[in-house]
Protein 1
Amino acid sequence: MRSRYRGCMLGVAVGDALGASVEGWTGERIGERFGRVTEMRRTERGLPAGRYTDDFEMTWEVADSIARTEIIVPEDIARGFLEWYSSDPISLGRTTIASMELLKQGAHWNEAGQRVHEEVGKMSAGNGSLMRTAPVALAARSDPDQLRDASMDVSRITHAHPLCIDACVVYDSFLADLLIMDRKAAWARLLELTEWAYPAINEALKDLLDSDGALDSSGYVISTLKVACWSLMRTDGLRSAIEHAVNLGGDTDTAAAVTGGLAGAYYGEEAIPDTWLQALDVNVHGVDDIRALADRLHELSEKDGSLPQ
Ligand SMILES: [Mg+2]
């Protein structure tokens, strides 16, 4: 289980970093230029190989807050986001920026995302809360009610569109199942959950595994959820899952980070290529820091079954 916790956190980090080198490229352009992206690369904008971006940095903030407070406190997570935001981070999404600006002006954690959603409507259904929700599943995996409520709250800090909130609950529920069961059984449970509780997401997922995997990988939350689920279910390992998500093009870093969280939880840290792990040490929080934080979440989740609310 400890390996799966580490795999999940490290999976988000390596997915983000591998995808960051070709963020926004089309699949065709990646193919023409590199054939296929399989190793960490320096980006055209000059970021070093292995550098992760906002996706993992926000994931870190969520995990770090939970480890520090030993419960899931959205207000504390929002404070962590603000501190991170003031460090001048790279490649943020529009909805995140708009919500962070409101938080900076003093908006309550439960209000900023909602105000942005009301202002921009449909366009606020981006993948910016899905990309950072995995630690919620790790912390609350043994308590489905807490997992649902916390996934919703942590999304709402920046992304209050109902689809974003629901996608986070669905993803975290799937991730929690992948920690303890075969992926086919977890997928069946996912479809069952979405069928009665989240019909819009069920509609998107129910025939997904029949597709050939050539999916549109945009910043739309449902698009990213589809790419991550297909990549996990229709490939034969962590490496091929993350590579599939990257080489589709589009929002490559986020799609691969979201995929990496699932694949790492399922296959464990041993499945992550050494060259990918080594490259992570270019970041402020390197491999050992990420392992230690994952271990803290693991210890917390073992404490009398679940976290106090
Ligand atoms: Mg990013």
Protein 2
Amino acid sequence: MRIAIAGGGLGGLTLARILHRHGIDAVVYEREAGRSARSQGGMLDLHPESGQQALTEAGLTGRFRSEARPEGEEHRILDPAGRTLVHHKPQPGSFSGRPEIDRRRLRDLLLDSLPGDAVAWQHRLVAATRRPDGGFGLTFDGGQRADCDILVGADGARSVVRSLLTDAGLSYVATLVELSIGDADRRHPELAELVGPGNLWCVGVNQILAAQRLGDGTIRVGVSLRAKEVDLDTYRSKRALLDLFAGWDPSLTALIEAGDGAPTPRRIEAMPIGTRWANQPGITLIGDAAHLMPPVGEGANQAMLDAAELAAELADNPADPDSAIRTYEAAMFRRIHPIAEMSARVQAMMLSPTAADEIVRFFAPQSAEPAPADR
Ligand SMILES: Cc1cc2nc3c(=O)[nH]c(=O)nc-3n(C[C@H](O)[C@H](O)[C@H](O)COP(=O)(O)OP(=O)(O)OC[C@H]3O[C@@H](n4cnc5c(N)ncnc54)[C@H](O)[C@@H]3O)c2cc1C
């Protein structure tokens, strides 16, 4: 059984690792040139029932605990005047909640757990064609070709593999503008103090100024705005961003002023809630390729759980991988539907006029819903 996984993000690598533990080989085709080709972004909190569960199946709990930062769970929520609305401090050194880990470290941890030849770097999939005798012929940017019996699309938000299964489109749900402040303790101690060891959200009307501290002392700053048909280039200037926060306390807008380089805007997109497809032999999707949702803290966790569940089905039923895929898809569709609904609801709430009140309620101890994403 030749398994090809398109995409070496958290989902694809977790799948390759768990399959490898079961003695099943898979090749991960990743478009990037190598593990350090691109910055991997900020921190993630891994949930016990999804991301952490997948790492247990991957046999990587020990390494996760040595790399994770439970203190990163600390978060503060402020209003535009800089008043603290919520301040949550985790139990020191406790792994019982949702410990944070830098994405880069998590990806490295997965990459280190795979045989050296498991990832084919610089292989951007551009087409997959069903072969008459079963399986797929794959074509990569640059002309390389490969064949496989099973194709798993783990190729993220703008998946190429997705189009073989569904014509579900993406909708634009928010704008995120990011900045980064390197070596914050030394260069901007007052901002390091403001952000603390974890996350800070400054919540206004229809907009959020957020910051998080990474393990290497960098502060990542994210400005979340409602989706609006404007030229994203407008947000490439700090001046334009600062204008959006006119009247906010200068100790907060200092996070924008201190950014190294120009801000980087991007659209945040989502697939329709309840997207599913008719099962087809030899092909499936995991992670954002299967269910891109607004980023409120579930996407990576669910991508890793998809990987663990698909790997378990394939390992349990190696003689009938199509039946394994059918079982995986049915369970994944059921699991994701309420999570996608919740993610859309939280996203809309966070960028609403009453966000501050609702977020305070959200973080009240009896709250049943997960915390908003670490932006
Ligand atoms: C700002 C922000 C904050 C977030 N915060 C959180 C959070 O706190 N918690 C959480 O759980 N989730 C969070 N998410 C969501 C999370 O990032 C994604 O859901 C998760 O990364 C999905 O994993 P994946 O493996 O499916 O896709 P990705 O991580 O996107 O990986 C896809 C991989 O496929 C590769 N690729 C793409 N196209 C091709 C191709 N054609 N051929 C070969 N390779 C290809 C890419 O280079 C990439 O390596 C956040 C998202 C955003 C945008």
Protein 3
Amino acid sequence: MSTQQYVNDIWQGDCAELLKQFEDGSIDLVVTSPPYDNLRNYKGFKFPFEDIAIELTRVIKSGGVIVWVVNDATIEGSESGTSFRQALYFRELGLNIHDTMIFRKRNPVPQIYRKRYTNEFEYMFVFSKGLVKTHNPIMVDCLHAGLELSTTTYKNYSKNDQVRSKIANPVKDKKLKGNIWEYVVGKNKEDQEAKEHPAPFPCELARDHILSWSNEGDLVLDPMCGSGTTCKVAAQLNRRFIGIDISEQYVKLAKSRIPAGQIQTSLLA
Ligand SMILES: C[S@@+](CC[C@H](N)C(=O)[O-])C[C@H]1O[C@@H](n2cnc3c(N)ncnc32)[C@H](O)[C@@H]1O
């Protein structure tokens, strides 16, 4: 099998094994979320992290991106630190830690541990193989769009505040979005389809990353695709996709979320 033979379908298996059949540098973008520190008992669970990281590093194209959405368990009063260990392992394999982004939940689960604040975010590590080849930046409205400023104050840390005498341009309408992205989890209609899975990420999260780091026709992989969120959104956005999950039940769920015309196999094949 070659990568091409897996395209536009969802496959059951251990991704560390299946990915061995993919060619080097054949994937444009990975958007995925691994199991978090055995927090949930996924069906057929097996998670050889180092093997998976090595394969992903091999199959991603030069300039390609891996978005790794992850969080830590808290064990005996301490966060495990697994997220950062994984990020540093990808760095050891030669990838850039291009950005450490935050997925902020607008409806976080109330905190069950005492003496801690509610945990309301997960990490979204953005790794790249060399310099990122595709970035379609998401722009947002400027709070003070159009405001005319006669002078600008800026801070020079080696001196006191300084004032520029030059007339500043009016504040622009749009600016680059920040790297903390906020989503409602599990409540939108398109996310409700995934509720048989214990930990789907929002379609909007997958959409924002796929639009940012890939172009139409590119090949997007989710090697631990769960309910198939990445694959569903990639197909909607005219990208090619490959999904893999170790659980037969989740593969079936993922296939059910993709319209018949956008997937190679039939729903119940
Ligand atoms: C956090 S969930 C992914 C959820 C997914 N992002 C979604 O939106 O539904 C992690 C998934 O990894 C799968 N998994 C665990 N080990 C795996 C392996 N070795 N190969 C493939 N999938 C694996 C689990 O079955 C689970 O569905």
